[in-house]
Amino acid sequence: MPTYDYKCTECGYKFEKFQNMSDEPLKDCPECGKAVKRIIGGGSGIIFKGSGFYVNDSKKSCDSCCSNGKCSSN
Ligand SMILES: [Zn+2]
Question: Within 13 Å of residue 19, how many CA atoms lie on the same side as its CB?
Fold first, then answer.
């Protein structure tokens, strides 16, 4: 199950969420309730190719930086 990175367009709050590919993307910031943007790829180790297909690339080496929230800044 891929991890999706979200960033709030209002307050800049960043968080990660485990979701199925088929799940609805989150819309609301848990901090301020404004709209959040889903960040795809961006150094998280998951590269999307076309619709619904992804490869898990260098996930291991990226786990530490993802937990620090650095991946989603790309
Ligand atoms: Zn927010």
Answer: 15
Distance from residue 16's CA to the centre of ligand 1 (Å): 14
User: What is the domain extent for residue 10?
Assistant: 3-64
Q: What is the token pair recorded at 12? A: 């800049």
Q: What is the pLDDT of residues 18-68, one digit of tens each?
A: 888 888 989 999 999 999 999 875 555 555 556 555 556 555 555 556 666
CA of 49 to the centre of ligand 1 (A): 29
Structural domain includes residue 72: no
